[in-house]
Design a protein that fits this description.
By secondary structure, this protein is an alpha+beta fold. Helices cover 27% and strands 27% of the residues. Strands 1-2-3-4-5-6-8-7 form an 8-stranded mixed β-sheet, with helices on both faces. GO terms for molecular function: protein N-terminal-serine acetyltransferase activity; protein-N-terminal-alanine acetyltransferase activity.
Amino acid sequence: MTPYDVDFYFPIPKLENDRVKLVPFIPSEHGDAFFAVATSHPELFAYLPVAPFATAQDFVSTVMEIQPDRSIVLFAVLDTSSPGAVPQLAGTIGLLATSPTNLSTEIGFVITLPRFQCTHVTSNAVGLLLRWTLEAPAEGGLGLRRVAWRANVHNTRSVRAAERLGFRREGVLRWDTVLPAEKIEGGNGGGIRGGDPKSRSLGRDTVFLSLCWDDWEAGARESVNEVMQR
């Protein structure tokens, strides 16, 4: 597994505070460590539109497939909250569907390992990305107008996490995604009609949320900072 040369639309700055640090996910550095924990917790992938991973190489192959897209960057989330201790791999997070033309992006592939769930990790990782993407260029940000968040309609924890950080629900896209045939959960519960070309695959309904620049300027910035400091 060799490191992948991250080729994102924007230069990646230092993304860290005194609790977490985000670094580009390098398969050779983070793949085995992440999979070693995640393989014992298949529930981490229950609502993601990807098949279960049988091996670390399967997981790395998926990462390698998504990384070359310039609209996507995947980060390893490192917990740095213990002074003097070696940073611990706490999960992943990424920016997806980034558009310099439309000044928009989406936070996704948010996987927090069990040991770090219900801690400072997720809120601080998301908060760092929100500061980078939504702050004006004069303040060191990208000046984007819109940051989206998508979640399986059954993934209430993901929706609550987004709403706690100021994202506003926009609606539900029905039959938004065809899940891999190997996925036996996370479907919308709808039947599959006769003759469907992917009759072995469940359909997913997706909740769409967003946090936009005007929300950020109207108080979301302060709310996010408060959540990060809890």
